[in-house]
Design goal:
Layout: E1 4-5, H1 10-21, H2 32-43, E2 46-47, H3 57-63, H4 72-79, E3 83-87, E4 91-95, H5 103-110, H6 122-135, H7 158-169, E5 172-178, E6 181-186, H8 187-190, H9 202-217, H10 232-247, E7 251-255, E8 261-265, E9 281-282, H11 293-300, E10 321-326, E11 329-339, E12 344-352, H12 359-376, E13 381-384, E14 387-388, H13 393-399
Parallel strand pairs: 1-7, 12-13, 12-14
Antiparallel strand pairs: 2-4, 3-4, 5-6, 7-8, 9-10, 10-11, 11-12
Helix pairs in contact: 1-9, 6-7, 9-10, 12-13
């Protein structure tokens, strides 16, 4: 019978989890581009997203962890072959050192097991490959569109569909993403010569994910080791490995205050208590810490939903609210937009959800974070339109 432990100190659990995520101190991975590479190699992926009301999600995630990170560094890492783009649970940047673990999914696309609805015009795909081989890297906008009737932005031209399938199947890779515009090149011309390109077995893939998840998340539920991946053989192998680790007493089942059970290394709660970061962090909705919404509730008692996909009349917090992390607690959220032409970061609403005795301190920390966040957006002014509760408005404005 497996022993289930109930940790009495949820705040220690939170700090250990935040430490695993690189969100506790100012320089957990290093500085600037070198630190950004170390961060993604530890986290395993950084998610991309197309929404641009503020700086793109992938750059935002790096900014939350890396001092002196600037948005151009992500594309520099891509163009230099240190990272590559593919799907994890969503479109993501991944460390090039882990390239081989994308190969099973690429095979599944070729075999018609993944991305089944993608149209595959093999003749057109062959023509595009020949053209890129002869001319060099191309973007989809470089390819002609001869259709007479188009139904909207979602109606991709055939060449766009074809080049995307070539990417998903692995014949092409993305060589650059300037201004979020993808440029494709032959995989053989992008891959560094020393990268392992052997397809991993299900056992190797599972071992990689189990190690990565414990390193980057601290505690993990069984269903989330293969988060977003649909390979049944992979999931079976992960369960086999976890069962074996439990039998060898390398892991422990841990019950959180809300009754949810997580797996943790046997020494997890014996580790030293990390020091809390006094700097408030404004996180991306797609940050590695926040993307699993149920996990946020379990560990931080924070119920969060991004509302850009919710009808405007039903939104509670705004189009693109950003979670606020202070020390070891989630203390609220802000909905904001970078007005780049006016060089102003407009905070449509700030929701302070900390306990009343901590609200003044949180407001001061948020003001300092907003100043830095505005600079990251290319802005030099912060404009706050609404604060909830209203009693926090004067503290926040005064601190700004």
């Amino acid at each position: 019978m497996i022993e289930i432990k109930q940790p009495t100190d949820i705040r220690k659990v939170r700090r250990l989890v935040l430490g695993a995520q690189g969100l506790l101190n100012n320089q957990p991975f290093g500085n600037a581009k070198q630190g950004a590479l170390a961060a993604i190699e530890h986290l395993g992926y950084i998610q991309l997203d197309s929404i641009s009301v503020i700086e793109r999600a992938h750059n935002h995630t790096w900014f939350s962890r890396i001092p002196n990170f600037t948005p151009d560094m992500s594309n520099e890492l891509l163009e230099s072959g240190k990272i590559y783009e593919y799907w994890a649970h969503a479109a993501s940047y991944l460390p090039m050192q882990d390239f081989r673990f994308s190969l099973p999914d690429k095979k599944s696309v070729r075999d018609g097991l993944l991305r089944k609805r993608r149209a595959k015009d093999r003749k057109l795909m062959g023509d595009i490959l020949k053209r890129i081989e002869a001319e060099g890297p191309l973007s989809s906008k470089d390819l002609e569109d001869n259709r007479r009737k188009k139904t909207g932005w979602w109606d991709w031209k055939p060449a766009k569909q074809a080049i995307e399938v070539l990417y998903l199947e692995g014949d092409l890779m993305i060589s650059s993403r300037k201004n979020f515009q993808k440029t494709y090149d032959l995989t053989d011309r992008i891959l560094p010569k020393d990268i392992n390109t052997t397809t991993p077995s299900a056992k190797e893939w599972a071992t990689h994910l189990v190690k990565e998840q414990f390193a980057s998340h601290g505690i993990v539920q069984l269903k989330n080791f293969a988060y977003g991946r649909r390979d049944p053989q992979l999931r079976t192998e992960i369960k086999t490995q976890i069962d074996a680790k439990l039998a060898r007493k390398e892991l422990v089942q841990m019950m959180l205050p809300n009754g949810e059970q997580y797996l943790a290394p046997i020494d997890f709660m014996d580790r030293p208590l990390p020091k809390a970061d006094p700097n408030l962090k404004i996180l991306s909705p797609f940050d590695n810490l926040t993307i699993q919404r149920k996990r946020l509730i379990d560990i931080f008692a924070f119920d969060y939903q991004i509302e850009c996909y919710v009808p405007a009349a039903k939104r509670r917090y705004g189009y693109f609210s950003l979670p606020l992390l202070y020390k070891d607690q989630m203390v609220g959220r802000i909905d904001c937009k970078a007005l780049r032409a006016e060089q102003t970061l407009r905070v449509n609403a700030a929701f302070i959800e900390a306990e009343s005795k901590a609200q003044k301190q949180v407001c001061r920390a948020l003001a300092q974070a907003l100043k830095k966040f505005a600079v990251f957006q290319g802005c030099n002014e912060v404009l706050i339109e609404n604060v909830v509760p209203q009693s926090c408005a004067s503290w926040l404005q005064q601190a700004l």
